[in-house]
Amino acid sequence: MNTRAARIGLPVLAGVLFLLGWELLVVANDIKPYLLPKPSAIWAQLTRNIDDILTTSARTGTNALVGLVVGAVAGILAALVASRFRVVDSLLVPLAAAVNAMPIIALAPIFNTMFSTTSAVPRRLVVTLVVFFPLFVNALRGLRQVEPIHRELLDSYAAGGWTFARKVRVPGALPFVFTGLRLAASLAVIAAVVAEYFGGLQNGLGTRITSAASNTAYPRAWAYVAAACALGLVFYLAATALERLATPWRTSR
Amino acid sequence: MIELAGIGKTFRGRTDVVALTGIDLTVAAGEFVTFIGPSGCGKSTLLRVVADLTDPTAGTVTVNGKTARQARLDQDYGIAFQQSGLMDWRTVARNVELPLELRGWDRRRRRDRALELLELVGLAEFAGSRPAELSGGMQQRVAIARALATDPKLLLMDEPFGALDEMTRERLQAELTRIARESGTTVAFVTHSIPEAVYLSDRVVVMSARPGRIAAVVDVGLGERTDDTREAPEFFARVTEVREALRGRTVVRAEER
């Protein structure tokens, strides 16, 4: 009980102290808002614009979610195929490494010209690509990591390749997949927000941040940044909750 | 039940390693045969050859009147290893159900069978637990229950009690002999413990290393095992006999003098 209270209470306390220190720092040193606004000023903007913050968060969140789901499914499927067929493995792994080495966010302006400017597809595509790699790599690592004894056991049952994949490879890989998903969940939100910096639809958190900043409305820009933080946190917590549901044998201990 | 004729197994590599050579052995149905020998004598490899988990490089294996491959495809045997090999993501009961699942048994029937087997190994109340919640000995019992799930005529066991403490070990040995006797199962059992080999078996196959071959076969003939078996003079006589065989000597039995 004590530990549970501490687990929740301590981070909250740390957060409050951090904000308090921030406020004091700004006030005591008379730091200008364009350098660093006060938390109280950001809070004021946050409450004033709450309706717009919620709607833009929902739009950016939808982009992140769609990209996350598509990218995750694609990454997992690719890993499944790669783990099953050696040829695909040797084709796909270098390709995936090359894609990952590319700054995917930098593709956002290119995608924007590929699709119409009123389309959410470019930013969803960016998210998809960003999400694909951590899922692919982690899922593949999990799928490959098979205990020899499980291999022999399933051989002794005369189990075929797909049965083996279903009974051993996939469940054994789940913890790895969720490690990738937790990573990808935060990345998805970052990618969705940043992809909006490069033009296209003016309806998300990212566009609100750039427009507020270019209007020198720094506390408002920070309020939208805070909303992006919260959105990222929601995604991360959702991924963690999903992990607990899907791999109860790891979290029940 | 098992017929081995001229079995050899050479691992090819920079230097070839002869793991087994010239193994001839017949195990009768219902017999409990233990393989013992120093590490590197190929006893585990021999068991894997019988299980068709590895191919011999010479000789023929007949299991249950068929080739080893066919016997494996027909799932004629149950197998247990030194590690339990339980799957973390399955409950204890679902681990026992695994071979039945692969045979296409329906959910209800395999659940009933799993509970029956867990009852047999004394773990009925742990059916819904996760393997990680069980001790090593309990996990091994679950693995044995899983090996017995399909009610195989042949049980192959590779040092299944190797990692257990002495107390648990002796209890499981007693359980295993009881199960094997009651079900008439043929058992091929690999161990490096002399008392274990003598306690369990009808015959002990003593192997020697480099190259792995059969050095001697000791007929145990102790009759039904009880708590007193381990303290009987005949038990110690057989232990001595196996030990001497491992050292490459033979013992003349008192009754034959």
From TrEMBL, chain B:
It comes from uncultured Mycobacteriales bacterium. SUPFAM superfamilies: P-loop containing nucleoside triphosphate hydrolases (SSF52540). InterPro entries: AAA+_ATPase (IPR003593), ABC_transporter-like_ATP-bd (IPR003439), ABC_transporter-like_CS (IPR017871), ABC_transporter_ATP-bind (IPR050166), P-loop_NTPase (IPR027417). Keywords: ATP-binding, Nucleotide-binding, Transport. It comes from the Bacteria. GO terms for molecular function: ATP binding; ATP hydrolysis activity. Residues 2-234 form the ABC transporter domain. Transmembrane segments: none annotated. This is Pyrimidine ABC transporter, ATP-binding protein.
